[in-house]
Design goal:
The chain has one domain. It is about 85% helix and about 0% strand. It has 13 helices and no strands. The longest helix is centred in the first third of the chain and has 68 residues. It starts with a helix and ends with a helix.
Length: about 325
């Protein structure tokens, strides 16, 4: 009897000494656990809501960029077929054939210059995330290099176009040379706007690129039809070049305005000599080669004229230009091993 009373006394004293084993503590633990579970569930719902909204914005942004890419590609793809269709309607199939050859000649040089510049797109995308301040510097350097290469190259392809006519067509065709002159002017503008186009692609700023490409496609159709109906086939090519130039000038100007890039960078320092020699050389040698006959295509006169044209329009101006070493490194880096 005394033992049982002692045991109850000991248990009672232990219960008072360790209140964490009592019923009140159990209820407190249960309440705290339920509170933690409720808070965790609310927090989880909040986090999941934020993640869902972020994913939705990402999907929307990605979908918008994909749509813009598709629109840009479609706008660029329809320009040439529309021009050829209008030429076939208002100028005839022969004129369309001359235009196609002239376009191939000019676009070949355009691709040589522009395609190498396209590799900057992933580089600019990476810099946009890590060092956005470096993107304008990349743009300026890219533009200077493109300007340095494009001006004499297009002047040279223009000057030797009569020889190309003799080689491809067997005779001098003034309409072919006229198309080369018109197309060279338009594609030169396109090449000079390419650095701003590439930067916009790299940074994901596709709005003005889409507007520029849409403007090119719309003006090409409208102006081409009007000019072709009232002025003939050559006017269609002029309308195509005008629409091409205006559309990509929109991209160039919008980039400079939005990024507060001064327009004076469009005329790099030390480029007056290249511009002058290109203009004078293309004018003189275009007339010189236009007087060539098919039987004298491979004569000493033409060979010497071709050498002098390349020397005065490309080699000497590029050699004395400050960008010569950088351009040589740029070319050598892209040559196959």
């Amino acid at each position: 009897m005394m033992a049982r009373v002692g045991a109850r006394t000991v248990r009672s004293s232990r219960s008072r000494e360790n209140p964490s084993t009592g019923p009140a503590c159990n209820r407190a633990l249960i309440i705290a656990t339920c509170g933690c579970i409720s808070f965790s569930s609310v927090r989880a719902r909040s986090v999941s809501t934020v993640l869902a909204s972020t994913a939705t914005r990402y999907r929307r942004g990605r979908s918008a960029r994909v749509t813009s890419w598709q629109f840009i590609s479609a706008s660029q793809a329809v320009r040439e077929p529309v021009t050829k269709a209008l030429l076939a309607k208002f100028g005839g199939l022969a004129m369309t054939g001359f235009y196609d050859l002239a376009s191939r000649w000019v676009v070949t040089f355009r691709e040589l210059i522009v395609q190498a510049n396209q590799v900057l797109v992933p580089t600019i995308a990476n810099l946009q995330e890590r060092d956005p301040e470096a993107v304008p510097r990349i743009y300026r350097e890219s533009y200077r290099l493109i300007f340095f290469l494009a001006i004499p190259t297009f002047a040279f392809l223009l000057a030797v176009s009569p020889l190309v006519s003799l080689i491809w067509l067997g005779t001098y065709q003034p309409i072919f040379v006229r198309f080369v002159v018109i197309l060279a002017a338009g594609w030169l503008v396109n090449v000079l706007t390419n650095p701003s186009y590439v930067v916009n692609l790299g940074t994901g700023s596709l709005r003005w690129v889409s507007i520029g490409c849409a403007t090119t496609a719309a003006l090409n159709l409208m102006l081409g039809f009007i000019f072709g109906k009232y002025f003939g086939g050559v006017a269609i090519v002029a309308a195509s070049v005008l629409s091409l130039s205006l559309g990509y000038v929109i991209v160039l100007v919008s980039y400079h305005v939005e990024n507060r890039e001064p327009f004076r960078v469009l005329l790099p320092a030390g480029s007056v000599g290249i511009i002058s020699s290109s203009i004078v050389g293309s004018y003189l040698f275009l007339g010189f080669f236009s007087a060539s006959e098919a039987h004298s295509l491979y004569s000493l006169r033409n060979a010497l004229g071709l050498f002098v044209a390349a020397l005065t329009m490309i080699i000497i101006p590029m050699w004395v230009h400050p960008l010569r070493r950088r351009a040589l490194r740029w070319v050598l880096a892209r040559m196959p091993a």
